[in-house]
């Protein structure tokens, strides 16, 4: 059954896992999402009664009354805390179900919330809880210490903690961007909640698919997460592609049934979304985190670590991406289920813009390090790649404010939407492909690994025109006022509650 074990350089499962699955007969054994300490591995293997008790205690802790913090942004307007919304329709929340964009689903009153100060070092967590599936015997349990030149924080604690610095604010607009980033960036406590859920859910799913593995992917790990980011999960059931219309939907239907029955005390609103890549969407009652769970969408694991590398090789990247995502969300053009841009597409747009400046802010990693970002690379070593790449030293000293204005100008005035495709893989704009999948598409953004169009959801001219209009208006306003509040009016959004 495990004939491919040696070729993957990973030993087979222990005997207790060597059993035939009723649906799949080839299960992956080589794909760790991240690393877990020995103590955390032991804790993850406790019986279900202890797990329930732990979650109950966590629920009690989260319910403890705490004096909420008041954050200021830009001109000093306070950003108050708000409870997370409890309902959804489609793939994302509707705008009328949202609170003000800067406080949307943020938990500033968290007991373990870390705060940071602009322009000072942001320390990494001492004991991150990123996990490695406990039953996989792998050499990756040994600590990986990055080279001294590495700039990307490792996914596990190490003796020498990598320091992450933020850019210096050279003007008012740059300062506003940094303040927004400080308030809205994903905190360690947010990631820990998602990881705790992942461990518990994986244990339950393995009752149905004993040798499956559950990975936390997307913005939670790629460096571009916010406090309002949902959790993306990839359930890997075998080491080869699955038919998303048949096999994946069958697996997800069983997962949905599990969530609706046995786990109904802990998981609410499990919903099977029949998209091109089908998902089960659900909410964890204890943490309040909403998740999207897919099956064998392996490209999501690869691009998570590509984006993580881009996020940390230049200190201006993360703040700029975050403000663009918040801007798009505020203007209702950040929802692929409603025909606009996904967050992933927005990230790729920012990376492409920074790659194509006359003096680039970012390199093209897939061209400079082809062996490290090979689409055929073994998945069990992908998580090591970001820690092997040194920081990119750009000669471009533009401020965050100037870069944001330039981003809007580039896509409003310079980029040729009718004839060009955004390619982070090549680090430049490419001519539109002639294939049927690209014809009659208003926006073409190449997925760096599988070459598909990440902006295929924008299939209506009205939505495309809306996106272009927002880019143009924001550029025209921001270049004159140079005030972030002019395109992200906090006070107005607060009155819309």
Describe what you observe in this structure.
This protein is α+β, with helices and mostly antiparallel strands and 497 residues long. The protein is 32% helix and 9% strand. It contains 13 helices and 9 strands. The protein has a 5-stranded mixed beta sheet with strand order 3-4-7-6-5, with helices on both faces. It has a two-stranded antiparallel sheet with strand order 1-2. β5 and β6 form a beta hairpin. α3 packs across α8 and α11 packs across α12. The longest helix has 21 residues. The protein is globular and about 60 Å long. The N terminus and C terminus are likely disordered.
Brief overview, please?
The chain has 497 residues and is α+β, with helices and mostly antiparallel strands.
């Amino acid at each position: 059954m495990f004939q491919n074990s040696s070729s993957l350089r990973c030993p087979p499962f222990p005997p207790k896992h060597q059993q035939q699955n009723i649906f799949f007969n080839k299960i992956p054994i080589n794909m760790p999402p991240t690393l877990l300490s020995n103590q955390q591995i032991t804790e993850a293997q406790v019986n279900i009664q202890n797990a329930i008790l732990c979650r109950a205690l966590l629920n009690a802790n989260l319910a403890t009354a705490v004096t909420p913090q008041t954050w200021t942004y830009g001109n000093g307007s306070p950003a108050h805390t708000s409870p997370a919304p409890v309902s959804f329709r489609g793939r994302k929340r509707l705008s009328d179900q949202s609170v003000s964009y800067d406080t949307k689903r943020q938990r500033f009153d968290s007991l373990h919330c870390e705060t940071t100060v602009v322009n000072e070092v942001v320390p990494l967590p001492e004991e991150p809880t990123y996990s490695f599936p406990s039953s996989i015997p792998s050499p990756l349990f040994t600590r990986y210490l990055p080279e001294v030149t590495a700039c990307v924080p490792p996914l596990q604690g190490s003796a020498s903690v990598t320091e992450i610095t933020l850019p210096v604010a050279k003007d008012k607009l740059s300062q506003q961007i940094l303040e927004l980033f400080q308030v809205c960036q994903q905190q360690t406590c947010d990631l820990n909640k998602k990881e705790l859920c992942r461990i518990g859910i994986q244990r339950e799913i393995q009752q149905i698919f004993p040798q499956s593995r559950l990975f936390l992917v997307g913005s939670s790990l790629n460096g571009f997460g916010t406090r309002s980011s949902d959790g993306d999960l990839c359930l890997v059931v075998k080491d080869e592609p699955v038919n998303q219309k048949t096999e994946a939907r069958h697996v997800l239907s069983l997962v949905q049934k599990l969530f609706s029955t046995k786990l109904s005390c802990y998981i609410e609103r499990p919903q099977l979304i029949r998209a091109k890549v089908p998902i089960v969407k659900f909410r964890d009652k204890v943490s309040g985190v909403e998740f999207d769970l897919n099956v064998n969408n392996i490209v999501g694991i690869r691009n998570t670590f590509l984006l993580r590398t881009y996020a940390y090789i230049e200190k201006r990247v993360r703040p700029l991406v975050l403000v663009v995502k918040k801007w798009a969300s505020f203007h209702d053009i950040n929802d692929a289920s409603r025909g606009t841009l996904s967050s992933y597409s927005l990230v790729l747009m920012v990376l492409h813009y920074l790659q194509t400046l006359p003096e680039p802010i970012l390199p093209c990693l897939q061209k400079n390090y082809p062996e490290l970002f090979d689409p055929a690379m073994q998945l069990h070593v992908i998580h090591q790649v970001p820690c092997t790449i040194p920081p990119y030293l750009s000669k471009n000293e533009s401020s965050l404010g100037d870069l944001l204005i330039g981003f809007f100008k580039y896509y409003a005035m310079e980029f040729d939407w009718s004839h060009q495709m955004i390619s982070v893989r090549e680090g430049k704009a490419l001519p539109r492909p002639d294939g049927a999948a690209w014809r009659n598409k208003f926006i073409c953004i190449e997925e760096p690994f599988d070459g598909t169009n990440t902006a295929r959801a924008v299939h209506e001219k009205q939505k495309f025109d809306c996106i272009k209009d927002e880019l143009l208006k924001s550029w025209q306003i921001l270049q004159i006022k140079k005030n972030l509040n002019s395109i992200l009016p906090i006070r107005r959004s607060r009155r819309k509650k």
